[in-house]
Amino acid sequence: MSVIFKGKKPSRRAFMKGALATSAGALSTGAALAAGEKVITEVQPWNSELGDGVDVMPYGKPSEFEEHVKRRTVEWLTADPVSSINFTPLHELDGIITPNGLAFERHHGGTAHIDPKEHRLMINGLVDRQLVFTMEDLMRFPRENHVYFLECAANSGMEWRGAQLNGCQFTHGMIHNVMYTGVKLRTLLEEAGVKPSGKWLLAEGADASGMTRSIPMEKALDDCLVAFKMNGEALRPEQGYPVRLVVPGWEGNMWVKWLRRLEVGDQPWHHREETSKYTDLLENGKARRFTWEMDAKSVITNPSPQAPLTHKKGPTVITGLAWSGRGTIPRVDVTIDGGITWHQARISGPSLDKSMHRFYFEFDWDGKPLLLQSRAHDSTGYVQPTKDQLRKHRGVNSIYHNNGIQTWAIDEEGKAENVEIS
Ligand SMILES: Nc1nc2c(c(=O)[nH]1)N[C@H]1C(S)=C(S)[C@@H](COP(=O)(O)O)O[C@H]1N2
Ligand SMILES: [Mo]
């Protein structure tokens, strides 16, 4: 279907062209594909020789032709790779699930490698019974499965003062969306018995950074999970093996990896990650604290700077992702003329609470330059703002929580560039 012949010769090619034209009226012709026809008429190595037997690769990997599909870092962003970040290659993915090997990594003291037999999760503080769980203990509580996005609050943080990084992997790739299997945090807290004065929870990681965050008890008892599986298999070491906290819809920093301790207290701890980091400095010098919920956001992943249009004018598919920390995404709008006219995109795939949504917009490209934007609406009625609207409220001193509308400029060649127009 992707190969449409120009139809110089009559017979089959002309028929194919005709058939396509009637079955899908919007399609126009592509370029003749003379050079590529050898793959049809000549025997190839892969159909004249036997392939690999089973077990050549006991744990499977993507095709060798997909080697460019990988997490990438931006070296100048951080001083050292152990307290650093890499980015999910959003422009290479489709659907809503992030494959485990491509989920971006953010750690403050490197990846801990923990033997699950040596791991313990402790609950202490304002509880009736201080408890210590082994991984085996955790497996004996009822478990649940949920798909959630995790977005670092710093995602798009480099774009506050203007367009900077050329690719949605770098502008928007501090996000992943996977299915978690875990025990409800509520179940474990009930096992310990939270005292009436217990209003806050401190979650602590077992890695070298010993990362901690304060979480209000209301959220802890609502939808948080203590998760040990992602997309069906054990968490990857990078994602907190053997166990991490899942804090749906809230900033990634709170999703403590290598979770070793939960302390119940009567007030927030005001540790490093919720004071000097992960607060938003406003124009007047005051800072917003505890900005936990991730606002609705979207981005066009294709085309984008790392994934230009290569097919010239004609039928063109735009696709992207949208999400909200407050619910689902009932609607995404797309513009190809920089916001003069908006079209409702088609959402395809599951629409789950606090999970990524996949949208598509198909159109006939006339080969002229385009200004592409997407705009998410969430189930609370909130509409994703432009970057100018966001800066009006927040100034330009922020790093975190930049959910402004992204623009890609497409030129006549189909090349895409990160620009800002609104
Ligand atoms: N123990 C521990 N948990 C942690 C971190 C860390 O450095 N150590 N980084 C946090 C931050 S800032 C983010 S954005 C997410 C990233 O999760 P990921 O590495 O699975 O993408 O984990 C959070 N949990
Ligand atoms: Mo983060």
UniProtKB/TrEMBL annotation:
One Gene Ontology term of the biological-process aspect is:
sulfur compound metabolic process
What is the superkingdom listed in this entry's lineage? Bacteria
Q: Which residue positions does the secretion signal occupy?
A: 1-34
Q: Does the keyword Oxidoreductase apply?
A: yes
Q: Name one Pfam family in it.
A: Oxidored_molyb
Print the keywords alphabetically: Metal-binding, Molybdenum, Oxidoreductase, Signal
Q: Which GO terms describe its molecular function?
A: heme binding; molybdenum ion binding; molybdopterin cofactor binding; sulfite oxidase activity
| Domain Moybdenum cofactor oxidoreductase dimerisation per the UniProt entry, residue ranges | 289-406
The cofactor(s) it depends on are: Mo-molybdopterin
Residue ranges of domain Oxidoreductase molybdopterin-binding in the record: 108-269
User: Which PANTHER family is this protein grouped with?
Assistant: SULFITE OXIDASE, MITOCHONDRIAL, SULFITE REDUCTASE
* Name of the featured protein: Sulfur dehydrogenase subunit SoxC
Q: Which organism is it from?
A: Cohaesibacter gelatinilyticus
